[in-house]
Amino acid sequence: SKVLRALRDVLERDGVLAQAIVKDAGISVRDVRMSQDNSKAFILWDTYIENVQGAGQILRENTGKIKHLVSRQLNCKRVPFLEFIGYHDVSVQQSEQEYILLMKKLDEIQK
């Protein structure tokens, strides 16, 4: 999706965000799903660091800046509300099952 490409571009190219989010917090964006009316973007993220709450806090602190930069990247004034959903669990297999369930829920929201 356009939002996913713009989000990844912003996180990789903006020096301050790239340092804080990608390098320091080890955050990567796995998927982006849009609500049916395109008013919300559900962003599934993951991190390789142990402090998942800290990584989530960094995302929350930078949401406004991320939204602003995504708006500029997409060249539009109306950008969807960004809702970050953490993808983390001890068991990879369990996480994969939770991911599938989450994607089904988001698909239902999109309908």
Low-confidence stretches: 89-93
Ends apart, CA distance between termini: 17 Å
Helix content: 55-70%
Instruction: Determine the number of helices (DSSP H or I, runs of at least 4 residues).
Output: 4
Largest sheet: 3 strands, mixed
Mean pLDDT value: 79
Tell how many strands the DSSP assignment holds.
3
Give the strand order, joined by hyphens, for the main sheet.
Answer: 1-2-3
Percent strand equals 15-25%
Spell out the helices and strands N to C. HHEEHEH
What structural category do the secondary elements indicate? alpha+beta
Shape estimate: flat
Radius of gyration over C-alpha positions, nearest whole angstrom: 14 Å
Characterization of the model:
The chain contains four helices and three strands. It has 111 residues and is of the alpha+beta class. Helix 3 links the parallel strand 2 (40-47) and strand 3 (81-86). Helix 1 (2-13) packs across helix 3 (52-74). The protein is flat, with a radius of gyration of 14 Å. Mean pLDDT is 79; it is low at 89-93.
Outline:
This protein has 111 residues and is of the alpha+beta class.
Write the layout of secondary structure elements.
Layout: H1 2-13, H2 15-24, E1 27-34, E2 40-47, H3 52-74, E3 81-86, H4 92-110
Parallel strand pairs: 2-3
Antiparallel strand pairs: 1-2
Helix pairs in contact: 1-2, 1-3
